[in-house]
Amino acid sequence: MNVLFYLSSAIAIAATIMVITRYKPIHALLYLVVSFMAVAMIFLSLGAPFVAVLEIILYAGAIIVLMIFVVMMLNLGSETAQQEKEWLLPKVWLGPSILSLVLLGEIIYLLLRSGTGNASFIFIDSKKVALSLYGEYIIAVELTGFLLMAGIVGAAHIGKHKKKHLHRFLQEEEVSTKIEVRSTKPEDEKQTKPVAYKP
Amino acid sequence: MPFNPQAVLIVAAILFVLGLVGVLTRKNIIFILVSVEIMLNAAGLAFVAAGARWGQPDGQVMFLFILAMAASEVSVGLALVMQTHRQHKTLDVQELRELRDKTEEYSSI
């Protein structure tokens, strides 16, 4: 069990390092799939098979595929990789990395100092999770439904093309009003200019 | 079965810091979104580890909520990325500064 956990966590950390250092977005996303699968393996070794399956289905199967589709639609290829190569200089990443590593050292020191050693865990199956989810957390489940609804509506509203698709009658109306506006514009200017001089 | 909760939390902390470094150093919006996903995943790993330590299902329930939040966040974020690419023809976060102050001292940055 311990060998399984350490092996999969090493794979997860290595794959995540590869994710944040790649130049091409598609390579980073494929390494991210490997990282998520390694984390799912960690979940399995922790005795949480339901969450492990959800990690693979939703993270690696839905979210990453969504990102890959966007990368394909935006056609991010070798030009993006070239830009990233120009942007990712040592003077850019050295400072934040060192500061974050100091913080990581602090939290690892705290975790190791307050250690209680090995603990035995109880296998939690999906039945317990489901009973807890639809029992004491039912309000949170409904609020999550609201959140997903807002996410869908927001994504559909933000992501749509802002082209005007008018009915043909309305289009004729709009064209005629445009012509009227054009024809009346010089007169309006003539009328408004003396008014501006009055006071 | 014995396991070491500190080791799992250390792995979660390492993954979180890697995501943080990705957010801080990258300039492409896609990579920033990916790094945010890594950080959310590390937080979920810490939740599941805590739930396994105490033998309660609450950790896994919290992971489900994190999963739903990550899904809606990434859908809205990718819609924003597509609009940005359509309007500005770039994904560089340093190019997207239309909201800045139009004074002379900031124009050199």
UniProtKB/TrEMBL annotation, chain A:
Give TM segment ranges: 6-23, 30-50, 56-76, 88-112, 137-158
> Its membrane topology, per UniProt?
Multi-pass membrane protein
Q: Where in the cell is it found?
A: Cell membrane
Q: What keywords are assigned to this protein?
A: Cell membrane, Membrane, NAD, Oxidoreductase, Quinone, Translocase, Transmembrane, Transmembrane helix
Q: Which InterPro entries match?
A: NADH_UbQ/plastoQ_OxRdtase_su6 (IPR001457), Nuo/plastoQ_OxRdtase_6_NuoJ (IPR042106)
The name on file for this protein is NADH-quinone oxidoreductase subunit J
> Which reactions appear under catalytic activity for this entry?
a quinone + NADH + 5 H(+)(in) = a quinol + NAD(+) + 4 H(+)(out)
Q: What is its main location?
A: membrane
Q: Known EC number(s)?
A: 7.1.1.-
Q: What function does this protein fulfil?
A: NDH-1 shuttles electrons from NADH, via FMN and iron-sulfur (Fe-S) centers, to quinones in the respiratory chain. Couples the redox reaction to proton translocation (for every two electrons transferred, four hydrogen ions are translocated across the cytoplasmic membrane), and thus conserves the redox energy in a proton gradient.
Q: Which organism is it from?
A: Paraflavisolibacter caeni
- What EC class is this? translocase
Q: Where is this region: Disordered?
A: 180-199
> Compositional bias of type Basic and acidic residues: which residue ranges?
180-192
UniProtKB/TrEMBL annotation, chain B:
Q: Which Pfam families match?
A: Oxidored_q2
User: Its Gene Ontology molecular function terms?
Assistant: NADH dehydrogenase (quinone) (non-electrogenic) activity; quinone binding
Entry EC number(s): 7.1.1.-
The source's superkingdom equals Bacteria
Q: How does it sit in the membrane?
A: Multi-pass membrane protein
UniProt subcellular location: Cell membrane; Membrane
Biological process per Gene Ontology, one example term = ATP synthesis coupled electron transport
Transmembrane residues, as ranges? 6-24, 31-55, 61-81
Q: Which GO terms describe its cellular component?
A: NADH dehydrogenase complex; plasma membrane
Please provide the record's keywords in A-Z order.
Answer: Cell membrane, Membrane, NAD, Oxidoreductase, Quinone, Translocase, Transmembrane, Transmembrane helix, Transport
- Where does the signal peptide begin and end? none
Q: Which reaction does it catalyse?
A: a quinone + NADH + 5 H(+)(in) = a quinol + NAD(+) + 4 H(+)(out)
The record describes its quaternary structure and partners as: NDH-1 is composed of 14 different subunits. Subunits NuoA, H, J, K, L, M, N constitute the membrane sector of the complex.
What does the UniProt record say this protein does? NDH-1 shuttles electrons from NADH, via FMN and iron-sulfur (Fe-S) centers, to quinones in the respiratory chain. The immediate electron acceptor for the enzyme in this species is believed to be ubiquinone. Couples the redox reaction to proton translocation (for every two electrons transferred, four hydrogen ions are translocated across the cytoplasmic membrane), and thus conserves the redox energy in a proton gradient. NDH-1 shuttles electrons from NADH, via FMN and iron-sulfur (Fe-S) centers, to quinones in the respiratory chain. The immediate electron acceptor for the enzyme in this species is believed to be a menaquinone. Couples the redox reaction to proton translocation (for every two electrons transferred, four hydrogen ions are translocated across the cytoplasmic membrane), and thus conserves the redox energy in a proton gradient.
> Hey, which family's this protein in?
Belongs to the complex I subunit 4L family.
Q: Which NCBIfam families match?
A: PRK05715.1-1 (NF004319), PRK05715.1-2 (NF004320)
What HAMAP family does its record include? NDH1_NuoK
Report what the protein is called: NADH-quinone oxidoreductase subunit K
